């Protein structure tokens, strides 16, 4: 097979043999592809820059089996996200989601969406609440693109619209992880949301995070942690692997060092 050029995000990099690395790359052209990066574990290698959370331009080849990286160029690095545990956990969670969602078939728009949210995480890296809220929203966007969106518009039992009655504090809806949200407290519920929590969750399908008129983020951290739990439960139920990175983000914020 002739060499070809690819541009994509390094989602995961691991050891391969004594001196090589195994690169998992998300690209628009091929979806999720894995490549051998020869000699990348040698310090002076020209391919040593193959690292997670980098946008790469690659020249790849190989006649059969696992393709091999011939040349690479770093277009952008999100290495700043690795400087704090919460941003590292958030970024890893998004990469892990992409690895699962694109495992079988390419997902249109997945690369541009994850890049957008990594940029936002980097922009808000010093604000733990924005990192948390941004991770919840990014996860919902990625899950929707991958065909695993949270059904938040109608009751999974009755089909009635899920209209959050703001101000009715005794109202509840229940997450049934296999099916979605059901009105009222239900047997087998994994978590229950009040009207304001549901309304906040429903707004996350939009492009931007929900903010008050003064520009501040809507909702306190404890509410965003509950919404993060909703995402964790949905991922654990509907994807092949639970997200350890989402759990790590939650624990980091609950018990900061």
The percent range for strand residues is: 15-25%
Instruction: Give me the CATH fold name of the largest domain.
Output: de novo design (two linked rop proteins)
The gross shape turns out to be elongated
Relevant CATH superfamily of the largest domain: Recombination protein O, C-terminal domain
Q: Give helix and strand order, one letter per element, not per position.
A: EEEEEHHHEEEHHH
- The helix/strand class is alpha+beta
Number of strands: 8
Quote the distance from N terminus to C terminus: 51 Å
- CATH top level of the largest domain is Mainly Alpha
Task: Offer a concise description of the structure.
With 257 residues, the protein is α+β, with helices and mostly antiparallel strands. It folds into 2 domains: 4-77, OB fold (Dihydrolipoamide Acetyltransferase, E2P) (Beta Barrel); 80-254, Recombination protein O, C-terminal domain (de novo design (two linked rop proteins), Up-down Bundle).
Characterize the structure shown.
The strands form 2 sheets. Strands 1-2-3-5-4 form a 5-stranded mixed β-barrel. A 3-stranded antiparallel β-sheet has the order 7-6-8. The chain has 2 domains: 74 residues, Nucleic acid-binding proteins (OB fold (Dihydrolipoamide Acetyltransferase, E2P)), CATH 2.40.50; 175 residues, de novo design (two linked rop proteins), CATH 1.20.1440.120. The model has no long low-confidence stretch (mean pLDDT 94). The termini are far apart. The protein is elongated. With 257 residues, it is α+β, with helices and mostly antiparallel strands. The chain has 6 helices and 8 strands; from the N terminus they run E-E-E-E-E-H-H-H-E-E-E-H-H-H. The relative contact order is 0.12.
